[in-house]
Amino acid sequence: MFNNSFKIMFLLILMMGTLITVSSNSWLSAWMGLEINLLAFIPLMNDNNLMSTESSLKYFLTQALASTVSFFSSIFYLIENFYSMEMIFIYSKILILSSVLLKMGAAPFHFWFPNVMMGLSWMNSYILMVWQKIAPFFILSYVMYKPLIIFCAITSAICGAISGFNQTSLSKLMAYSSINHMGWMLMTMMKNENLWMNYFFFYSFLNLTLIILFLMFNLNHINQLFYLYLNSKTFKFSMFFNLLSLGGLPPFLGFLPKWLTIQYLVMSNQYFIMLILIFSTLISLYFYLRMCYTAFMINYNETNWTMNYQFNQNMMNIYLLCSSISILGLFMISMIYIML
Fold it and tell me: Where is the NADH dehydrogenase subunit 2 C-terminal domain (predicted)?
């Protein structure tokens, strides 16, 4: 991705657009930051193949639609300020929230997200799943309308879990996993902004661990995980443990943000939403376990030929460090908490 200098330039512009939105104190500057971010990301998406061109076009059309809706909703704000009508204020809030949720790919506005992910490289996918969500989440924190946020959180959790079934593409699997996590993050944002930041940090870190792995071995489909010949059993187990950590299985680091979210929901007496989120995570854990189950068995068959993978040793060291934190992170944090 970073072989060309113009891509580094567009990456810096993309970061600058997000920072403008996050630090803005007016709707106009926030909108400008989002548009700068969008126009910088589209050249990064284009990898000179048909799939990436199609993905960049889909992404542009969807984001342009969201920008149009946000512009339209600003008219309602002007009318509300002039006439002081409560109903128009609520409609404008719903429209702005809908445009922001469409930009970030939360359900029920998630129709474009998996299709765009299919045509992207893994580094671009990581930017789309993580960095491109920062600015919309900050705008959501400015305009909170609880009924719509709760509806989108529940819908995202259920859609992300159920749609992951029967997927053979790792890109689509990561996309639906991202939608499922978005449901949790929307609920954490509504309860506590610091809790959302913690959840987002852990989510970004766990995604990075898996993206580095997929990059090293050039993995795109689930069956490639089964045909992958690995001399080191420790490395193979760490690879599948990272998948379970992203799903939120208790002994691993991915369980910690979900644990904190469940605690806040219990303290707020929102047991019904908590149960829906937990059941959706159990469903998503099923298709992670489906990938890991055969590899964990004693009679697991591997291919007889060895494939020579050419990957950077520095990337390998980064992966092993991130993987060890992902697998042992909950234990390490618990020990630090006990000592303090």
Answer: 285-337
The phi, psi pair for 30, rounded to 5°, reads: -65, -40
Length of the chain: 340
Taking residue 231's Cβ as centre, other Cβ atoms within 10 Å add up to: 8
State yes or no: pLDDT of 62 exceeds 80. yes
Dihedrals phi, psi of 19, to nearest 5 degrees: -65, -35
Cα of 286 vs its chain's centroid, Å:
19
Whole-angstrom Cα distance, residue 330 to residue 259?
Answer: 11
Check: CB of residue 40 under 8 Å from CB of residue 32.
no
Mean pLDDT over residues 129-139, rounded?
A: 92
User: In sequence order, what are the residues at sequence separation of 6 or more whose Cβ sits closer than 8 angstroms to the Cβ of residue 124?
Assistant: 1, 44, 45, 47, 52
Is this model's pTM higher than 0.85 or not? yes
Residues 6+ apart with CB under 8 A from 332: 325
The set of residues, in sequence order, having a beta carbon less than 8 Å from that of 230 and lying 6+ positions away, is 236, 239, 302
Nearest by Cα to 66 from 114, 44, 34: 34
Structure tokens at 307: 């494939």
User: Which among 190, 210, 204, 209 has a CA at the least distance from the CA of 277?
Assistant: 190
Least confident of 57-71, 106-120, 199-213, 321-335: 321-335
Bridge partner residues of 221 (DSSP): 169
- Decide if 129 contacts 207 (C-beta within 8 A): yes
Instruction: Pick the closest to residue 261 from 286, 245, 281, 240 (CA basis).
Output: 281
Task: 55-60: list long-range contacts, CB under 8 Å, 24+ apart.
Answer: 55/115, 55/116, 55/117, 55/118, 55/119, 55/120, 56/119, 58/112, 58/115, 58/116, 59/112, 59/116
Helix axis angle, 193-217 to 170-191, nearest 10°: 170
> ω into residue 108 within 30 of 0, thus cis?
yes
Find out whether 339 and 333 touch, Cβ atoms under 8 Å.
Answer: no
* Residue 319 identity (one-letter amino acid): Y
Token readout for 114 is: 């998996």
Which tokens in the block code for residue 110?
Answer: 């998630």
